[in-house]
Every structure is written in C-alpha cells, then in structure tokens.
Amino acid sequence: MDGKNMIKGTGVSPGISIGIAHILKKDDDGLSGIIIQTNEARELEIEKFNQAVVSAIREVETIRLNTSFDLKPEDMDILDTQIEFLGDPQIAEDVHEKIRNHFRSAHDAVIEVIDAAVEMFRNMDDKYLSARAADLRDIGNRILRNLNTGRASFGPDFGENTILIAEDLAPSDTITLDTTRVVGFATRLGGRTSHTAIIAKAKGIPAVVACGSELLNIRIGETVILDGTTGELIINPGSEIMGVYKAKQVNILNEKALLRSLKDLPAVTTDGHRFKLYANISNAAELEQVFENGGEGVGLLRTEMLFMGRDSFPSEEEQFNFYKQVAIKSKNRPVIIRTLDIGGDKQLPYFGIPPENNPFMGYRAIRICLDQQEIFFTQLRAILRASVFGNLKIMFPMISNLSEVKQAKECVNEVKLELKNAGIDFDRSIELGIMIEIPSAALIADILAREVDFFSIGTNDLCQYTLAVDRMNGKVSALYTHFNPGVLRLISYVIEQAHKQNKPVGLCGEMASDPLAALLLMGMGLDEFSMSPRSIPSIKNILVKNSLAKAREVFKTVMEMDDPETIINYLEEVII
Amino acid sequence: MISKDYTILSPQGIHARPATALLKLTRHFKSTICLQKDERLVPLRSMLNILALAIQCGDTISVIIDGEDESEAALSIDNFFNDLLKHQ
Lengths: 576, 88
Hints:
The complex is a heterodimer. Chain A is of the alpha/beta class. Chain A has helices spanning about 40-65, 75-85, 90-100, 105-120, 125-145, 170-175, 195-205, 240-260, 285-290, 305, 315-330, 365-370, 375-385, 400-420, 440-445, 445-450, 460-465, 485-500, 515-525, 535-545, 550-560, 565-575, and strands at about 5-10, 10-15, 15-25, 160-165, 180-185, 205-210, 225, 230-235, 275-280, 300, 335-340, 390-395, 430-435, 455, 505, 530. Chain A has 3 domains: about 5-25 and about 155-260, Glucose Oxidase, domain 1, CATH 3.50.30.10; about 40-145, Enzyme I, Chain A, domain 2 (Orthogonal Bundle); about 265-575, Phosphoenolpyruvate-binding domains (TIM Barrel). The radius of gyration of chain A is 26 Å and the shape is globular. Chain A starts with 5 loop residues before the first strand and ends with a helix. Chain B has one domain (about 1-85): Histidine-containing Protein, Chain: A (2-Layer Sandwich), CATH 3.30.1340.10. A 4-stranded antiparallel beta sheet of chain B has the order 1-4-2-3, with helices on one face. In chain B, a hairpin with a 2-residue loop joins strand 2 (about 30-35) and strand 3 (about 40-45). The mean pLDDT of chain B is about 85. The interface between A and B is medium-sized, with 27 and 25 residues.
C-alpha cells in the first residue's frame, strides 16, 4: 500500500496485534450441478438438509446460551433473528421443493434458495431490509457448512502471526479461527454488534470491523499493526511507530500474564481469608476454560441447552450422559446443577406454553417442574444417577416460598427411594440448594436456610424483581443497577441469615463478575463468586490484593450510603 | 375467522426484531394466522415472508386469524401491535 498507510475502522475486540496480512478470499460455495436420480436419494438429501438446519440452530443456541460471551440484549436479538431464519418454514419448503421436483442436491438447493432470497432483499429500497441480505447469506453458509460436516471452513493453514483481512467473516469462521496463528483480523464490513465482533471479543482476538473498501488495498505479506481498541490499522509502519506499538503490546501482554499467573494462586486475601471462585457454564466442554482461568468449581450449570434445539424432551438417558460427562470432567470439584429454568422468555418449541402478559412473573422454572412433575422426575433421576461420578449438587431456581422448597425436596426424596429400591447407586448425601432471586425468598432467608444446604443469589432476576425494572426495556433500563441500596440490603440480609445457620452463600449473577462489586460482596461475607470463566482472573486479582478487613470497612461505608451513584463513585475510589 | 387492520406507527416498520417477537408470540397458537399487505397474503410463521412484505411506517396491514383459539390469538396480537410495536 502506498501513500496512506492508516485505515480507520471500528475496534470491536481490544488489544494490539502485529502481524503479516493474509487476504482471505471466500471461496464461493459453487453449485455442484449434481442431479439426484432416485426418490430415495432425494428423500435422503431432504433429511440431510433438515439435520443440517438442526445442527445450525444448535450452533447459534450454543453461542446464545454461552454467557462467557457476555451477550448484551441487542446481541441476543441478532442471534434470535438468526435462529428464526434458520428454522424458517418457507426456506425449508423451498429447499425441499428444489430437491423433490428439481432433483437438486441439498447443497445446491440451499445455495439456490438463499441466493434468491438474498437477491430479493438486496433489491428492497429499504436500507434496513437490504442489510438483512447479509444475515441470510450467513445462515445459508452456516447450513452449508453443517451439510459438509468435517470440512474445515478455512482451507489454508495460516502462518505464524497472521492478520486476516477479509470482506466479512461469518461467526462460525470466527469460532474456528486457529488463535495460535491468527493474531487479529480486520473486515471491510460488519459492525459492533455483528456476531463476529461478539465472538472475537470472547476469544480475545483483537479485531477491527467496518474498515471500508480501503482495506482491500492491503496486499498479502504486508506488515500490519492492528489496534482493536482504537480501531486503527497501520500498514507497513516505520520503525518508530513499530516501537511505540510494540511497547503498548508488551504492556497489555504483561497485564494478561499477570492474570494468568493468578491462575494457580488460591483466592486468599492479604489477611488470609479464602473465597471460592466458581464458573457459570452450560456444558461439559466449557469446564476446560473454567480450569484454565483458575475456577475451582461450577456455581451454576445451566441445563436449558439440553432441552433446546430439538423437538422433544431429552430422555433420562440423554440427560444422564450429559450430567455424567460434566461430573467426570469436573474431577470431583463441586458442580451445582440448576434444574430446568424454562418458561418466561425461554420457550421450548415442543412444550407449548400459551403466551403470557407477564412472562417473567409467569409459568416458569420450578413452577413448571412442580406442576408437571414428569419433567422434573426425569431430570432428578438423571442427575442423581450421575452423582456417583463426581461432586454434584442440585439447585432449584425461582423459589418464592417455603412450600416450593419442601415440595422440591420431597420430589428428590421420592426419586432417591425409587433408585434405592431399584438398586441404582447415587450420592446419598447430595447437597440441595436454592436460588435466591425473588425478593420474598430473600426476605425469608432465615426460614429457607433451615431447609437447604446452600443458597445461590441470582442477582439478575433479583434486581429485576426488586426494582420492578425490565432491563430489556430501554426506557427504564437505566434504573437497573445492583448497587441500588434496596438490592444491597437484600443481598446482605440473605448472607447474614444463611451464615447464622452455617449455610454457605454463592452469587451467580452478573454482579459476581463486576470488579466494582467485589470488595463489597467480600465484606458482606459472600462465600462463593460464580461467573463466566473469563472473568475469574480479574476478580481474583482484586481478592488477592485486598484484605477482608478493608472489604468489611467498604461494606460498612456503602451500607450507609443512600444512592447508587454515590456508591459507585465510592467503590471506584477504593478499588485498586 | 377474525380479521383486523393495523396501521404501523413504528418508524422502522416491521423489522427483524418485532418480526421475531411476533413469530415467537404466535407460534403456540393452533389457529392459522396470516398477514396481508396490499394484495400479498403470507402465513405468519416465516421470518422471510414477513420481512419480504417490507412493511414500513404508515403501511396498513391486515391480520387474519382462523382456528379454534382465534380469539385468544387475536387478543395477543392486538396487544402486540398496540403496545409493543408502538414503542419500538
């Protein structure tokens, strides 16, 4: 590139990478032209397509449910839209028709149908709608990739320190990037909320999107500095600039190394008090990330993923295998399994819950489980059977009163008896806990603590219910903060009451990963912090640098403050 | 059968977000639900079809519901259009 050697895009994933440009030309998935000869083979193609759609939806749901990606509500919307498109009956119908009546392969049929739809959207004179063409292209590619399983989406093996330059990257491309070689990427298209941006951030690869057409002037082999924080790309930098960025890069790496060095350090304060740092996960595969980041256990295993992206309830056997995997891979470290938390905004296609005016206050979670006990029993049996393989604990969500706890425990006892009579082994002393996420439960923490082995505070829902704020509603979301003194009093009360009965308290909402809240929660005496694996080092860093004595001071001071803003300002001052 | 007209007031018309919400909302009804704009009528179960109608601010569309739970469905859709969409 001559002359101008700086390109400005939108930085979407922070960090600096210095590397060699590799221009990615997306090999257009061409039509194969294959004609499918027999009816049987055509039905097989249809089945292949249907399967590919199911796996594609599952992929997106995995992204959606994986909070280690820290999705914002708007990101969720994008993913929801993708899922809608993937499962679109019109697209399926059109593809089936191409296969049945035009003898196309599933691969060709998908290309033709998606191309036609993309063309239609492109030609709309509504800017917003013509932009949907990109979404359609992406879901088309995703289905194609799932049709050709086993085929890597990238052909070339990248050299060391590759900076990828591309038109656009599909989210699934980003997921599969070999981060030992690709150190950063820049795309001509894309935006802050594109899936690609979200995933790059989660993987920790610096990335710049929306660079415009200047990006395409970069040539293969040129040296590129990519600053994912400012969104700048510098091509063929002089030695002086290179020096500046290398120094910046070293600073950032030092910081990262510091966090890594914390990994095997126990989470002990300077005055010798130990806290537990756990992770929130959705499947066994994520455990690896938990341990890499120094997590000591799982404070929340969501089980919804098992139930989504399919068309019927998973059998006891399927569930058993899922929990067993987790139990084995956790190597005896504690894993708290939350029983099914569907309903409200999380719907299962095969379990029709009529629309509700107030879904967050409606038929969901434990309410469904206690009402339709068949579902609950199957899950409990599967968990109990798996409990011999590790250190599993069971946690019930959405508890609002004592009777629900008693009923849920009764169900566990029934299942235990059944298993015992059938001679099936299980952990007889499996611990049972509840989520504290409804204000009424927080306020009767003393009563509930008698019934269970542990509490876990779900601050996301607790905030929403205490403040009566739907944080998805932009008009009121500013009111949503866990630093509202009302919320803080509830949390502190729950911990105090549980401790009176020697019951440990964890916290598995977003507050656990908020560095500003760490000292305060330590001071309250919280026993266990559970968060997305990647957040663990930064919270540990605060823990090991501070004393419990200081945290208690902070807690005392905060509880005398009267509004969130004062509290936040104060916490910003005291945190190191 | 119930048929009802709505004039879309949200500045962006019916884009992906409300379309997703509408699909989620109506999925559980047994009734057949269709959207009509001008002479084009599409079943309300496909994102592609809804967006293809390119419903913009100021457009009037009809919702046609037919089936055993049509009144329940109509109520829910009514809430959706009067409430949700207006506030987008």
